[in-house]
User: Fold this.
Amino acid sequence: MLSRWICAPLLLVLAAAATANAADLPDFTGLVEKYGPAVVNVQATGNPDAQAQNQDPNDQQDVPEIFRRFFGPMPQPRDRGTRVSMGSGFIISADGYVLTNNHVVDGADQVTIRLSDRRELDAKVVGTDAQYDIALLKLSATNLPVVSLGDSKSVKAGQWVVAIGSPFGFDHSVTAGIVSAIGRQFGGADQQYVPFIQTDVPINRGNSGGPLFNLNGQVVGINSQIFSNTGGFMGVSFAIPIDIAMNAVDQIKTSGRVSRGMIGVQIQNVDRANAKALGLPRIGGALVNKITPGSSADKAGVQLGDVILGFAGHDIVTSADLPPLVGSSKPGSKADLSIWRDGKTLTIPVTVGELPTDKEALASARGGAAPAMAGNPLGIVVEELTADQRKQLGISNGEGVVVTRITGSAARRAALAPGDVILMVGRKPVKSIADFNATVKGAKPGDSIMLLVRREDQTQFLALTVPTEKDKG
Assistant:
């Protein structure tokens, strides 16, 4: 009998708690009713051969296949020579400007917009930008419903977000979730200037180009890509920050194209071995492994082996943090670089240059092996580069030696391979075999040594630790 008196209040408490928790969940109906009409379906029709010609074949290699841009041909195209892709978009001005993804309309001969009232209007492509994956469209209409634009810089992990779009052609589908992370990078050349917003909002093919709303009904991002083994939603999706998208829109309206800043450095992450070799007190920053001659960084005095810790007052935690900051800077503007060099932090002012819009052809080849020469404490056997190898790799005379054989465990663990060209040891340029061997000769067991290595058209610092007797045995 006593247990009944105890359980009854407990059940009331649990029921009250469940009711309170349900009341705490957000209600999206007001947001959808107010801003849903500004979300549109985008249908792009084009010649598949023309689309293939417009696409840079290297771009698909830059982004891992597991990252899917979610648009696709309709199940039943109009004819064998026509490709119809579907996506989403949203109206940003009452006079007919519509924002969507570049990959939705890329190569299209005709773009049709279907509004919430079922009207279908032809759209003109005002301009596009592949790096930001942005396309600005224009409708010949007025008094259209518009979205409210928010501030993507205020987005935080854990907050609720809502997506409205046309997954699989089902217009005005609403899904919700939370922001999983901000500032995500894919690590390739494609869209390296976009710090993506990662969410767990369920989005699929057809959502591409649609808006991502915060709870205030403001657009904070454009749904763009998903992470998937199957091509369907698996809990990880990515949106382009609206601040970046609107920066592209303003430039397209003003000049017809998007310009980006550049300082002319190739960078890599700083791992534990790099940090130890460089004397960095913590792991972080962007390690400079290549500098474009005559670039802004070159003129400012940036050196190989420098670690960029900050740009224009922003901390650089990983190397992926730097490209979006530089890319969004106006060419000709000035910024301060915070640099770690030789155990000290320096401030170097730099004038931001402009990223070229044309794609340069990169031709490189790995040099063949040559007769082995004397080894060294690192277990790396090197040889002089031939004239042909220097020409193929674009390396000047008196610069670098080629690895012909690996005999040490440290070099193997660092993934050094025959054919790699060693350009520097620490901060000292390598000009010959004797130069290289003399530089590493004094290395003691346990020491960390940085090597600047050229492999085909990529240059990267590798940190090697001289093995101890324990390591050898």
Observations:
- The longest strand covers residues 173-184.
- Residues 2-24 form the longest helix (23 residues).
- The chain has 13 helices and 29 strands.
